[in-house]
Specification:
Helix content is 45%, strand content 21%. The chain is built from eight helices and five strands, in the order αββαααβαβαβαα. The protein has a five-stranded mixed sheet. Helix 5 links the parallel strand 3 and strand 4. Helix 1 runs parallel beside helix 7.
C-alpha cells in the first residue's frame, strides 16, 4: 500500500482512538507530507473539522502554486464541504481509500478536472463499517444521513 495512504489510515486510527470518527487525510507536496489530519468533529465539537479540512488547517497557508502541485489522500470519499476545499485550493489529484460506505462528490471533482483514484482499501472499509455499526447516531449526525 502507498505510504501516504498508510499515513492517512494512521490519522483515521488516531481519530478513532480519541473517540472520534475514523477518517484521515494527508496533503502531499513533492513526496513530502505538507499537512495531515483526522476527523475531529466529536473531539473539538466542530462542524467543519473533517479529515481533509483538518489536513488543510495543519498544512497552513500555502501559495496556490504549492497546492496546485499537491496530492490529497483521504481514507473516505470527500463530502461536499471537503470537495469544495479541494476545488478552492486547486488540488489536482485525490487518492481515496474507499467510497463504499460513503460516496461523496467524486463526480464534481472529476467534472472540474481533478484526477480521482479510488484504491478500494479493505482496511479503510473495515474501519468505517465497524464505526458505523458501533456508532450509528454519531455517523448519522453528519454526512452519514
Amino acid at each position: 500500500m502507498d505510504i501516504f495512504l498508510t499515513a492517512a489510515i494512521d490519522e483515521a486510527k488516531k481519530g478513532l482512538a480519541e473517540g472520534g470518527i475514523p477518517i484521515g487525510s494527508v496533503i502531499v507536496h513533492n513526496n513530502r507530507i505538507l499537512g495531515k489530519g483526522h476527523n475531529r468533529r466529536i473531539q473539538k465539537g466542530s462542524v467543519i473539522l473533517h479529515g481533509e479540512m483538518d489536513a488543510f488547517e495543519n498544512a497552513g497557508r500555502q501559495p496556490a502554486s504549492v497546492y496546485g502541485e499537491c496530492i490529497l489522500y483521504t481514507t473516505l470519499s470527500p463530502c461536499p464541504m471537503c470537495t469544495g476545499a479541494i476545488l478552492l485550493y486547486g488540488i489536482p489529484r485525490v487518492v481515496i481509500g474507499e467510497n463504499e460506505t460513503f460516496l461523496g462528490d467524486e463526480s464534481l471533482l472529476k467534472e472540474r478536472g481533478v484526477e480521482v483514484v479510488v484504491v478500494d482499501s479493505r482496511e479503510c472499509k473495515e474501519l468505517m463499517k465497524q464505526f458505523i455499526k458501533d456508532n450509528p447516531a454519531l455517523w448519522n449526525e453528519d454526512i452519514g444521513k
